[in-house]
Amino acid sequence: MDRIPTVSRTPGLFDPTIDPAGNYTYTVLGGPMSSSIGLGTGEYCDGTRCRYGRDTESLCGRRPVLLFPELGNADPGGTWTDPNGNLFAGLFTPGLDTAGAYTYTVTGTAPCPNDQGVIMVVLLTDPDAGIDGALTLCGNAAITDLFPSLSGSPDPGGAWTDPNGLTHSGNFDPALDVAGTYMYLLFVPPPCVSDTSFVTVSVVVPPDAGSDGAITLCSNDGMVQLINSLGGTPDLGGVWTNTGGTVMNGTFDPQWTPMALSPIPFRAPHPASMRQRMCSLPWSHCPTRGLMGM
After folding, report:
1. Which of 14, 52, 106, 221 could form a disulfide with 78 if both were Cys (CB 3.0 to 4.6 A apart)?
2. Domain annotation covers residue 49
3. Which pTM was predicted?
């Protein structure tokens, strides 16, 4: 005897999500002497488990990757095609295979249609932040880009932070920014690995030769230290030269040194610029007292 499945909630309407497969009986009641019975087999499609839509898989140009696990609960036994529509084994090898849309197709059992899932492969590369560098600037130098201080072949587009860990533009201003180690970061999402490099910035205090000065002496005055005639707060350790360009010790003796305009070139460590100041030394013969005769 044929099994009669449970009748669905709507008579004669088969719901594949609720009703079981099997033989369903259709009965037509006739008059008092007759009736007819028909048996039919219900076939329905329960679909496949291949994920619909697109998933994205980011790779970092290293080891081969099986794409099938990225589909989720897909039925095995399907076939892959690459972005060009060619058959594909399912193992993506960075450097050999092309990034793009990889399609996985599962053949459906009639009357079910085939099903497909698509993996969009994005191929990334590890960044290169270059090799650590150093930069020495004078305190009065112009704003300087830190990026050229990195050696190697660093990739552009990274982010800078200052020695305190704060965001920095990468343009160092000696008048405002602090000396120290500045970090350059190139961030990439996994599975790639971000990269960093560092620039150590040193700032040299610029030399101060003071401001120009003048002193008036009599020819018989004693020796004077010229640095005391400069204005401002000149740094010690500079070099004096006279009007003839001869180096002198900075001590002026009116009785031995001719009247001069003496420039002061101040020598400072590289790369600080040289500063110089002038000390004008006009002088005149002073009257002398002669001996009185008897």
Report:
1. 106
2. no
3. 0.53
CA dist., res. 234 & res. 34, Å (int): 130
Same domain? For 217 and 179 the reply is no
pLDDT single digits (tens) 233-276: 887 878 888 777 778 787 887 777 555 444 444 444 444 555 55
- Identify residue 188 by its one-letter amino acid code: V
What is the extent of the structural domain holding 108?
A: 54-123
Co-location of 107 and 146 in the same domain: no
DSSP 238-294: --EE-TTS-EE-SEE-TTTSPSEEEEEEEP--TTSPPEEEEEEE-EEPPP-PPPPP-
Do 219 and 271 belong to one domain?
Answer: yes
- Residues 198, 218 within the same domain: no
Contacts of 250 (CB under 8 A, 6+ apart): 225, 226, 227, 240
CA distances from 14 to 8, 46, 49, 233 (A): 6, 13, 22, 102
CA distance linking residue 140 with residue 205, whole number of Å? 8
Is 293 inside any structural domain? no
In this structure, what token pair is assigned to residue 154? 């660093």
Q: What CATH number does residue 185 fall under? A: 2.60.40
Per the structure block, which two tokens stand in for 62? 């290293």
**Which of 17, 3, 89 has its CA nearest to residue 46?**
17
Q: Are residues 17 and 41 in contact, defined by beta-carbon separation less than 8 angstroms?
A: no
Sign, Cα dihedral of 136, 137, 139, 145: negative
